[in-house]
Specification:
With 156 residues, the protein is α+β, with helices and mostly antiparallel strands. It is built from two helices and five strands, in the order βαββββα. 19% of the residues lie in helices and 31% in strands.
């Protein structure tokens, strides 16, 4: 694992298996760090990084039209974060995501946080798994529409 905080490929946390599709496109949002996001040491609090990743995931699924439970809920099953460089207020950041795998009912994402004006400097990187669930909370396959939309977002 490359622990450098330079972005060569944001998905350097893992490499997909040879039999899996490769998705080279990225979904990105830009947002401002808020004054209340910092801790007593004037660094952005570690918990806020998870909020930034959450905001990007929510916006991704909203852009797919997934605002109601009609098509089920995409719930977070796993998340991990490597904190690489302190993030200070004020800052404008880019939160990006690359897809590693679209499973029958899951989605593996590798994400990163970088300054909006310096996308090669990473503050953090993350791996998350999202599972599509039905109203009863059970895993359910992605609809053909959702699968096609996810593939379109993450294919360059």
């Amino acid at each position: 694992m490359n622990m450098s905080n330079q972005v060569n490929t944001p998905n350097q946390v893992d490499t997909p298996n040879q039999d899996q599709a490769t998705y080279s496109g990225a979904y990105e949002i830009t947002m401002d760090v808020r004054w209340g996001d910092q801790d007593a040491m004037r660094h952005v609090n570690n918990a806020m990084y998870f909020r930034y990743f959450e905001e990007a995931r929510v916006r991704l699924f909203e852009s797919l039209g997934r605002r109601t439970s009609k098509e089920g809920f995409a719930v977070l099953a796993h998340i991990s974060c490597d904190f690489l460089e302190p993030l200070m207020y004020p800052a404008r950041i880019t939160v990006g995501m690359k897809c590693q795998r679209i499973g029958s009912s899951s989605l593996e994402l590798h994400s990163w946080i970088a300054p909006a004006d310096d996308p090669d400097l990473l503050h953090a990187r993350s791996r998350s798994v999202v599972v599509n669930t039905n109203d009863a909370g059970r895993p359910t396959p992605w609809s053909d529409r959702d699968r096609a939309a996810l593939q379109a977002y993450f294919t360059a």
